[in-house]
Amino acid sequence: MENNPAKRSGSGTAVVVLLVALLVILPMLYALSAGPLVWLDGGTGRFTENEYVLAAYYPLIWVNESCPPLEALWTGYISLWEPSPPPTADMQPVTF
To answer: The dihedral of CA 81, 44, 68, 24: what is its sign?
Structure first.
């Protein structure tokens, strides 16, 4: 059995790249997942007021409350996912 370190040297690099990618991508996906959650909620509070969901997103809530510039950025992102209000009787349809 031959122990050739030259053949295995690239595998360590691949593991490091994979770990760095996971350490960057997973927190980003966690943070960005709040947007679709707001969209799924649809303004009902079914998800956004659930104690388990609030516990899961507590780190994001805490960071946003602690850092006002980040809170403004976060509020803007979340507003992109909020459902538009239903049409009212006094709204006229757009015609071309």
So the answer is: negative
